[in-house]
Amino acid sequence: MLPELREAACRVLESGRYLSGPETESFERELARLCGASGAVGTGNGLDALRLIMRGYMELGRLAPGDEIIAAGNTFIATILPATELGLEVRLIDPDETTHCIDLHEAENHTTDRTRLIALTHLYGNPSWDFEAAARLRRRGIILLEDNAQAIGATVAGHPTGSLGDAAAFSFYPGKNIGAQGDAGAVCSSDAELLRVIRALHNYGSEEKYHSRYTGYNSRIDELQAAMLRVKLRHLPQITAARNATARAYSESICNPHVSAPAWLDGCTQVWHQYVVRSPHRDELQKHLALNGVDTLVHYPIPPHRQECYRGVLDHLSLPLTERLANEVLSLPIAGTRPDEAREIALIINNFKPKS
Ligand SMILES: Cc1ncc(COP(=O)(O)O)c(C=O)c1O
């Protein structure tokens, strides 16, 4: 892929056009096509994509400060940061234990008359959707936002994530399945009005140069990132297939009563952004792997409602499963890890005996 990336970067350098040019336009078109949405807007990063969607709905009068949004307790904090910043009230709920994502049917039970939006994170590349519950929620005017930062290329019943809800946020942070050479993100939607507002908001709130209709932001994708991301989008099937082969090797080889492997979800394409095992002896398991030369990570050790920034705001919440997951999840190496290496790591896991 390197020669193609080099060629794309040189094309931009030679063009002398670094923002809002033909690469961005093509990237947006190609991303929207891939995700089955009618349009996309490239943004500075995934957090801004989420912020722009929420602000966009506010400008359209569909969301207002004080409205309630629902998100999963175990999501990455970026899903809810823009909500609290914009004065929305965040209600966190425990995820489904199999998918680690919100179960929309279960989320219905948590809605109130003030619920205006559900932000569903397809965590770890696990897609999650319930078409019937989604239709009922939509009939009540509840906006369904997909945080698709970790799940580009995933599908549910053949439908790509990013096209299931009313709008979706993408991150192209370098560690994502499709990673930029820096920060980048995007919004996908089939709501032309929302896309129009977001396009303005991401460029100082202006639709016409030097005329600001909204108090906007500066959060555009740049031409270099767009050109290189276009290359990576073309390689997405191979990128997903490589992760899938490694995940398969882990799942076929891990066999230890103290460690549970992640579920393979029926009717879905998972994209294995993370391969996350669970163990009640997680910290010991992590040390055992480190002693054997295997680096692992925890996504995420402190859930948002336990973060310092939400002290006095969200820390009254009781989310037993979220808290258990924070103590038990462990992400094994996946990007760039070959299936034979995964099988070796599985053997190390199989030799793990907790002392506690
Ligand atoms: C679930 C989720 N949402 C949002 C984000 C924010 O994306 P970014 O880092 O591009 O701002 C990330 C990634 O970091 C993420 O994993």
Question: In a nutshell, what does this entry contain?
Answer:
This protein has 356 residues and is an alpha/beta fold.
Structural notes for this entry:
The chain has 356 residues and is of the alpha/beta class. The chain has 2 domains: 233 residues, 3-Layer(aba) Sandwich (Aspartate Aminotransferase, domain 2); 115 residues, Aspartate Aminotransferase, domain 1 (Alpha-Beta Complex), CATH 3.90.1150.10. Helix content is 37%, strand content 16%. It contains 12 helices and 14 strands. The strands form 4 sheets. It has a 7-stranded mixed sheet with strand order 1-9-8-5-4-2-3, with helices on both faces. The structure holds pyridoxal-5'-phosphate. Pyridoxal-5'-phosphate binds next to helix 3.
Structural class: alpha/beta
How many distinct domains? Answer: 2
Number of helices: 12
CATH class of the largest domain: Alpha Beta
Instruction: List bound small molecules.
Output: pyridoxal-5'-phosphate
Could you state the CATH homologous superfamily of the largest domain? Answer: Type I PLP-dependent aspartate aminotransferase-like (Major domain)
Identify the strand order in the major beta sheet.
Answer: 1-9-8-5-4-2-3
Q: Which term fits the overall shape?
A: globular
Helix content: 25-40%
